[in-house]
Amino acid sequence: MNSTIEAILQHRSIRHFTEQKIEDEKLELILRCANAASSSSFMQCCSIIRVSLPDVRAKLAELAGGQTYVESASEFLVFCADFNRHQQIHPDAQLGFTEQTLIGAIDTGIMGQNALLAAESLGLGGVYIGGIRNNPQQVTELLGLPKHVLPLFGMCLGYSAKLPEVKPRLPLSIVVHQERYQNLDKQELEQYDQHIKMYYASRSRNNRQTSWSEQITATLNKESRPFMQGYIEGQGFSLK
């Protein structure tokens, strides 16, 4: 096992950071690694907004649901799907297709993962902030995002003050399918649910008494940002 694989398998979300700032050279390396990510048809349809101003950070933390680590992290980056740049190059560009929305989301996700893996390899930690989609229009106005730009997620980066346990993932026997899609093995799921319960019970902080299946049931029994469709269309995405 090499250091890259070790870093991937030891991933955990970091939400508590020290006051130590990320060195400029490390931040540049992280951003270069993000920018080196795979790009569909070499469209390079992603942008990163680096947010440093304390008042803007505080507002973003509020808009993301009161996630204070948006303020306390050394760096906060907002990853966006961006076709505005392409329209500036080609004003008659045919935009608004759902396929472009998918390309933008996929490429931006890959870019974010490159950034986080690079940060972790440099001894840093971080966490994705999907909460910026709680109030997408306000985030758009706050960051001055033009049409054809979608803020997909934020990312806190910094030096970890607390190192939580690695959260167990679904077993490969559930995730990986051979040749064709296979129905869920309920026995495997039950074993995983018990594993998750044991993990939460033994965790050093924020103990829970729920299984993964119970978490998923609770999450999918409520609406999930129903305003997103209208917002996405307003930004010029998924119109056709």
From TrEMBL:
Residues 8-159 form the Nitroreductase domain. It comes from Shewanella halifaxensis (strain HAW-EB4). CDD domains: NfsA-like. It comes from the Bacteria. The keyword Cell inner membrane does not apply. GO terms for molecular function: oxidoreductase activity. Keywords: Flavoprotein, FMN, NADP, Oxidoreductase. Belongs to the flavin oxidoreductase frp family. The keyword Nucleotide-binding does not apply. This is Nitroreductase. NCBIfam families: PRK10765.1 (NF008033). It holds the Pfam family Nitroreductase.
